Amino acid sequence: MSEPNRHTAAIPRHSARPRTADPYRDVAVVDARAPRVNQATVGAFSLLAVVTGWWPILALLALQLGIGLRFGRRYCLPCLAYFELIQPRIGEGPLEDARPPRFANQVGLAVLTAASVAYAVGQPLLGAGLGLLVAGLALLAAVTGFCAGCRIYRVAAQLRGIRLRRIERIEPADLGLRGFGRPAAVVFSHPLCTDCRRLLAALSQSGSPYYTIDVRDQPDLARKYGVALVPTLAHVVDDGSVTRWLVGAEA
């Protein structure tokens, strides 16, 4: 997990409020509304391609997704439209872990590429079916916020944290402690993540002891404990033995 640059972007005077995350440098998080603009664009143009038969549009969408994934948000046209034209006027939305929408884009890239190849080799029905699949899921995500690719990533992250890589113990020394003293919570968080801040505020109000591992400042610990999504919360006893492991929305 690479540590993003902490500089904040210069905001135009007409901005609704200053950004807390630079969209091009703080790439570990993303404004939750930005992926929906991208999904609306992909969904609308995919539907146009299938309805009109102009299937090269699907190939162009795949190319645009691939360029954005490879070179970053500055090269993603819908992302630029959101961050440069829309966000400065309506303000920054909730910030979330950027990995689920990135995974959704990777899935979209694969399906759009397959649809384009199907059209190119003379299988228009298959190409249309795949194109409509992308259009339907992307428009559903844009309108309702339900992102199938994001959901797949989050479920996989939960399985990874709970089953595939069973974490039996968090070393107290990793937090500069000899022991936790009593049952406590350990939260893996990112300082710009909205859900992380809400979780930490709730823990603070509860009065229960908790410790925070900032994955931006300590990416080595995030890798050590296999943290695939923030926030991730571990309930521990005195010696650091994990009694419960909660990932993402479960935390």
Explain how this protein is built.
This protein has eight helices and six strands; from the N terminus they run E-H-H-H-E-H-H-H-E-H-E-H-E-E. It has 251 residues and is α+β, with helices and mostly antiparallel strands. It folds into two domains: 29-156, no CATH class; 167-250, Glutaredoxin (3-Layer(aba) Sandwich), CATH 3.40.30. A four-stranded mixed sheet has the order 4-3-5-6. Strands 1-2 form a two-stranded antiparallel ribbon. A hairpin with a 5-residue loop joins strand 5 and strand 6. The two termini are 21 Å apart.
Short description:
The protein has 251 residues and is of the alpha+beta class. It is 51% helix and 11% strand. It has two domains: 29-156, no CATH class; 167-250, Glutaredoxin.
Report the mean per-residue pLDDT as an integer. 90
Radius of gyration: 21 Å
Strand proportion, as a percent range, falls in: 5-15%
Low-pLDDT regions: 1-15
Largest sheet: 4 strands, mixed
In one word, what is the shape? Answer: elongated
Assembly type of the chains comes to: single chain
Could you name the key traits of this structure?
alpha+beta; 251 residues; four-stranded mixed beta sheet; 8 helices; 6 strands; Glutaredoxin; two-stranded antiparallel ribbon
